[in-house]
Amino acid sequence: MKKRIIVISLGGSLIVPSGMMDIAFLERFKNTLRKHYRNWKFVVVCGGGSIARKYIEVLRKEGKSAYEQSKAGLLE
Description:
This protein is α+β, with helices and mostly antiparallel strands. It is built from four helices and two strands, in the order E-H-H-E-H-H.
């Protein structure tokens, strides 16, 4: 049986809702995905949230390229 792929967009505000990473939420999320590994493949895309946007804004003001701004948002 061929596995289907599910892409999930997980916002940064869910991962870090109030300045601290929500480990309990991430554990529940991971366990939910694991329950379905046999039949599904998952791709989880995580947002950078407000912290990434702050880094990007600083780089924009410094005249950095869109590529450099994107990399900072991804690495945050």
